[in-house]
Amino acid sequence: MSGVIGLSEFIRRLQAVSAAYTRIPNEIAALAVKFSKERFRDQSWIDGRREPWAPRASRRAGGQRRSQTLLVDSGRLKRSIRKISATPNRVIIGTDVPYAQIHNEGFKGPVRQRVRSHTRALTKFGITSRRQLKRSTAIVFGRVKTGETTVRAYNRTIQQDIPARPFIGSSAILDQQLITHIQNRFQEALNI
C-alpha cells in the first residue's frame, strides 16, 4: 500500500515541477524588464560592479520644472521596455523605440540632418539677438519686431558623440538573480 502513496506523491511533485517549468519563462521576463527599468532610476549599469552613466554635458533648459534625469524626457523609452517572447528555451526583452540602441550602445560619428523651412523674427536692425552684434558696434539694440524672414529648408552634417548608457543587456547581477529565482521556484515545487 505504501508504494501507491509514494507513486501518487511522485506524480503530484512532478506536476508541480511541470507547472513551475511553464511559469518560469514569464517570471524571468518580468524580472529582466524590472531590472532594465531600474537602470533608469539608478542611472547606472550593474555588471559585477556599478558603472554610473556618463553625466549630461549641460543642464536642460526649463530650470526646476524639467527633470534632469538621463534618458528620460517623455518616458517613452523606459515605458517601451517589455517582454518580446518567453519560451522555456529563450526569453527576449526589448523595445521598439528607434533611438534605444544608440543610447544603450553609444554612437560617435557624422549625422546628416534635414532642417525644415521655418520663419525667423527680425528687428529693425535685421538681427534676432544681442549675440549677433559685434562688441564694437555702437548701435543701441532694440527688441522691436519689425517683420519675419523665411529660412529655406536645407541639409547639414553634424558630429554626434552620444555616450553609451546601457539599460538592456547581459549582466552578472541579473544572471545571479534569475538563477536564484529559478532555484527557489523548483525548490518550492519539490517541497509541496
Characterization of this structure:
The protein has about 190 residues and is an alpha+beta fold. It has a domain at about 1-100 and about 165-190. About 35% of the residues lie in helices and about 25% in strands. The longest helix has about 40 residues, at about 1-40. The radius of gyration is 28 Å and the shape is elongated. The protein starts with a helix and ends with a helix. About 5% of the residues are buried.
Poorly predicted parts: 133-140
| Biggest sheet layout | 2 strands, antiparallel
Order of helices and strands: HEEHEEHEEEEH
Number of strands: 8
**What is the helix tally?**
4
Mean pLDDT: 81
Tell me the fraction of residues in β-strands, as a range. Answer: 25-35%
Q: Rough shape?
A: elongated
> What gap, in angstroms, lies between the N and C termini?
21 Å
The secondary structure category is: alpha+beta
Binned, the helix content reads: 25-40%
Tell me the strand order in the biggest sheet: 1-2
Spatial extent as radius of gyration: 28 Å
